[in-house]
Design brief:
single chain, 245 residues, alpha/beta, Rossmann fold, five-stranded parallel β-sheet, two-stranded antiparallel ribbon, 7 strands, globular, binds iron/sulfur cluster
Length: 245
Amino acid sequence: MQKKPSLGFFSFTGCSGCEFTVLFIDGILDILDKFNIEYFHLLKEKNREAQYDLAFVEGAITTKREIEKLKRIRKQSKFLVAMGACATHGGIPIQRNFIEKKELQKYVYNQKMLKDSIDVAPIDKFIKVDHYLYGCPIIKSEFIEFIEAYLKGKKKEQFKGPVCMECPRRGKDCFLNQGIECLGSITQGGCKALCTSQNVPCTMCRGPLESANFPVEIKLLESFGLSKKEILNKLRYFTDKVKSK
Ligand code: SF4
Ligand code: SF4
Ligand code: SF4
């Protein structure tokens, strides 16, 4: 019988929502049965460090200790996937980078941990990533499509282009035409415009496109009457790419 590929799921700073999303996939146990699961804290009581054919990494990197562990996982893994906004772009934890360090220190319970703390960063700041599963949380169908391609020995292509490309509101129904802020045009697509097709503007949970033109976006949001603070809060929700206006 052919040996099953070994699999690891690892979590750094995040809410574990992406790992839970995986566990909530219909038929997930049949999918996972195609692998030897070596490491998955939410699923197994005993986990061991091993060599992994495939590793999923969730969460942003926030401490020096996490960098070491991440680099170790990279060395042990043949193919590594960044899973969810925290891992791909810093996600919600990256908002910490915009709080004054002195202010932050006042609220940290374990003051000893502060010495180990670094600016929050996505995992590809420290290691090579082979594939990205975007979103907060990730999308179940994208996870399944990736796994199916992987098991066939194929590489799943990343979607290229903004959320607008898949948006049913393109044209006169576009939120922007109604003066409603929607970040779809600067956001990494591939979610089948999950929110805008349900009447909810895009908040950029899949992170900004490489080509995102922030100065133009800021001007647009200003024309909607938003203050500088409101604009920065919107653009900095999942990423720290917008440093200042
Ligand atoms: S991307 Fe969202 S759902 Fe996933 S771990 Fe981060 S905060 Fe949680
Ligand atoms: S994603 Fe937003 S900006 Fe893009 S077409 Fe849809 S409503 Fe308009
Ligand atoms: S529409 Fe925007 S906020 Fe909604 S899932 Fe897609 S990228 Fe995320």
